Backbone:
């Protein structure tokens, strides 16, 4: 097949002008932003004295706040031309097996900021655009900046998506170090590698399955590479 990911706007124009008949369809490929909740450095127990990263994502409310701060709808509208939807589960909302009771985290900067404050990520200068600092959060030294790294590939759509998400996180006082990697380097399997070696804070990549079941086997303990 011919990759046309970066030609959607042109194809839609051809369709509007009657020059081509274009049909778009969705799949169960899910572009996800993963949290590095338990990085590889925690495998011998969480030990800040040995240089372990602060336990940024242990509190699920922090992760929920991130979800509310992410403007995923803008990604759908600006990058995907409204042809997709913000996923709330692995199964699309128009599928008969979709669960209508699934929790939905809509983009809500005010709610995200309130939740971060509640957890202990404080806005010390009452300026939402400056980086929040930790106060009284278990596993996170006081004064730690809410600064995370974000790794993904340099594909055009991922550059567009990641910039939107980084900008929206900034509205919640979350500072992001965005790193574009060669796909060979990002997806290299082995101990110490960035994605499969669990050395990241946030990672954007595609989660793809052949049917309605997500590839949960990716997340089994047996899949974690060791030094051996």
Residues:
């Amino acid at each position: 097949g011919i990759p046309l990911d970066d030609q959607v706007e042109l194809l839609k124009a051809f369709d509007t002008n009657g020059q081509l008949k274009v049909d778009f369809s969705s799949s169960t490929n899910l572009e996800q932003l993963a949290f590095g909740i338990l990085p590889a450095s925690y495998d011998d127990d969480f030990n800040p004295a040995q240089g372990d990263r602060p336990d940024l994502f242990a509190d699920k409310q922090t992760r929920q706040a991130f979800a509310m701060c992410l403007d995923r709808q803008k990604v759908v509208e600006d990058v995907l031309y409204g042809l997709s939807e913000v996923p709330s589960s692995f199964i699309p909302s128009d599928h008969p097996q979709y669960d209508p009771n699934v929790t939905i985290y809509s983009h809500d900067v005010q709610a995200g900021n309130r939740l971060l404050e509640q957890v202990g990520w404080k806005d010390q200068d009452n300026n939402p655009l400056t980086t929040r600092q930790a106060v009284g959060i278990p596993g996170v030294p006081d004064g730690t900046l809410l600064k995370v790294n974000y790794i993904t590939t340099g594909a055009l759509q991922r550059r567009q998506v990641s910039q939107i998400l980084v900008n929206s996180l900034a509205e919640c006082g979350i500072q992001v170090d965005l790193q574009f990697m060669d796909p060979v380097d990002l997806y290299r399997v082995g101990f110490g590698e960035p994605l499969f070696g669990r050395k990241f804070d946030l990672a954007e990549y595609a989660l793809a399955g052949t049917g309605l079941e997500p590839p949960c086997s990716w997340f089994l303990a047996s899949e974690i590479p060791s030094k051996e």
About this structure: The beta strands are 30-35, 121-122, 133-134, 147-153, 175-181, 202-207. DSSP finds six helices and six strands in the chain. The radius of gyration is 19 Å.
